[in-house]
Amino acid sequence: MVLGAIHHFHEERRIRLLNRYIFPAIGFIIFLLIWEVIPILEPSARALLPVPSQLPHAFLGEVKSGIWLICVAESLSHYIVGLIIGILFGIGVGILTGMYKSLEAALAWVIRTMRPIPGLAWIPFAILWFGVEQGAAIFIIAIGVFWIVFFAAQAAVRNVDRELIEVAKAFGFTSGREKLVKVLFPASLTGILVGVRTALGQAWMAVVAAELFGVAGLGQRMNQAASLLATDIVVVYMLTMAALYGLVDTGFLLLQSRILSWKA
Amino acid sequence: MEGLNGADPVIEIKGLGLTYERDSSVTEILRNLDLNIVRGEFVAIVGPSGVGKSTLLRVLMGLAAPSSGEVTVHADQTCERAMALVFQDARLLPWRRVISNVSFGLEKTKLTKAERCQRALKVLRGVGLEDLAHRYPHQLSGGQRQRVALARALAVNPSIMLMDEPFSALDALTRQALQDELVRVWDVYKKTVLFVTHDIDEAVYLADRVVALGGKPGEVKASLSIDVSRPRERHDRALQAYAIRVKEELMAEAIAREDWVI
User: Fold this and answer.
1) For residue B50, what is the DSSP state?
2) Which residues of B touch A (CB under 8 A)?
3) Which pLDDT tens digit goes with each residue over A107-137?
4) Number of H helices, E strands in chain B
5) Is B199 exposed, middle or buried (0-12, 13-18, 19+ CB in 10 A)?
6) Taking the domains of chain A in order of start, what are their residue ranges?
7) How many other C-beta atoms can be found within 10 angstroms of the C-beta atom of residue B88?
8) Residues near B141 by beta carbon (within 8 Å), at least 6 away in sequence
9) Residue A186 with chain B: CB contacts under 8 Å
10) What's the complex ipTM?
11) Which residues on chain B are in Cβ contact (under 8 Å) with A175?
12) How are strands ordered across the β-sheet holding B42-46?
């Protein structure tokens, strides 16, 4: 019995290990191999599709010339500034409309009109107002982030347990500001952070889109490389974006688990 | 009212009525309710569900507005708040540790952070929970959570403690422990307590006076002083006799109502 249990325990650990590391690694290697082999089998694809073995060389070239770092810094700065602006406005307007029904009503049709407009549809105006400059990229990013965080914050505030608000009232915190600080904001933070996390991904799309229109950064560099058929460099930047997003998301999850450490 | 002549009233309720209007239907919860509470008195309010016991506390607390009548509260000037409410479910703020839940109400006062902490710890010690000061509510048992809620109310040093079926969600043993704890705390702090419950044995065991609400809309049907000296024995014959009397009052009232006869 005991031996059986121990055996079973080892078996379970082995399967966990396989599922967590071994199988994903095997799957990834197969993916790379297929990718590497396609241009060999189909010579016409050679100019259009770089193979994985080309990438380290292309990557090193970009890093050595310093372009890679400059592009990453440019894009990150658009990303972060746009994100912060979008998040602040989103939380602010979301909380206010969540708290005050009359404000929500006053903005209802404005929101209905503006909400369906895709963030990228603002690109013409972004360029008119800010030129093909940082400001344009930041504007586009902030708009996309704003809507996501706004809806998340509004819903989160509306869904705060009325009973907790009553606790605040019972202890004399009756003004809107007091209720916000003591209960509404801390109680809705979980929901707001869900919106922020969604916005993190959305904002990367906006970064690339804005930069494809010429604002300096990863997207612009990609576009340049593509026009020269330097497809390996295009892929280097695609993977760079994936890595940066992964990094940001992981960092956010760490931060979130610290902020919400009171949860089980 | 019994035994109030010349006494020092802390709450005077006169002709209190409350009606709710929702979707064009009008519900009368309380009608013409008179009740006086004396300083330092432990009053239990009993009655069937839906009779407006909790509503009465909510009116006193300012969480619901009466439709008619008057409520006068003569709070002690030395107390920081006139009243503090202990809810049926502890209603702790889940993102705050125990100690900061207890000091929550003190954030309305002029006390510094250090003073608030000190006070909260003292009250927590009073309910035997100082070891759990840095836990989060989800790490506590139901009984512990309700103790924290009690401490949170005591911390603001209220003139009157309002308690809304505070032990009804607890298991029998925990409930008894908390009842005894409450009596002990009441003895130390000398607060006026208004304790709503549907458990008549609990009411009789804890209170100086049991007020029975009945009817729809609710009004005071009986007020009975429990003349049993403290400390009390849970299975005291006299207490049991009182409990039977309260039950009879409530039953008589219920049977008198036509909707019950059918």
Assistant:
1) T
2) 61-63, 81, 84-85, 87, 89, 91, 93-97, 104-105, 107-108, 136, 138, 156
3) 999 999 999 998 889 989 999 999 988 999 9
4) 8, 9
5) middle
6) 2-44, 55-259
7) 18
8) B174
9) 93, 95-96
10) 0.86
11) none
12) B81-86, B158-164, B192-196, B42-46, B209-214, B219-225
Question: Residue A183 and residue B93: Cβ atoms within 8 Å?
Answer: yes
Res A79 pLDDT > 70: yes
DSSP 8-state assignment for residue A18: I
B104/A170 CB distance under 8 A: no
- Quick check: B96 and A163 CB within 8 A? no
Distance of CA A147 to the CA centre of its chain: 14
Residue A89 CA to residue A70 CA, distance in Å, equals 29
- pLDDT, average across residues A175-190: 95
Residue A262: which of B61, B81, B136 has the nearest Cβ?
B136
Question: From the candidates B103, B107, B140, B148, which should be mutated to test the interface with A, based on the most A CB atoms within 10 A?
Answer: B107
Average pLDDT by stretches of 10, chain B with 262 residues: 62 90 83 90 90 89 89 85 92 96 94 94 91 94 94 92 92 91 88 93 93 84 88 89 88 65 40
Instruction: Write the CATH number of the domain with boundaries A55-259.
Output: 1.10.3720.10
Question: Among partner residues A169, A171, A186, which is closest to B95 by beta-carbon distance?
Answer: A186
Residues on chain B touching A256 (C-beta within 8 angstroms): none
Q: Do A170 and B156 touch (CB under 8 A)?
A: no
**Is the Cβ–Cβ distance between B192 and B40 less than 8 Å?**
yes
CB B90 within 8 A of CB B145: yes
pLDDT digits (tens, 9 = 90+) for A39-66: 888 888 777 888 899 899 999 999 999 9
Is the Cα dihedral A239, A243, A245, A249 positive or negative? positive
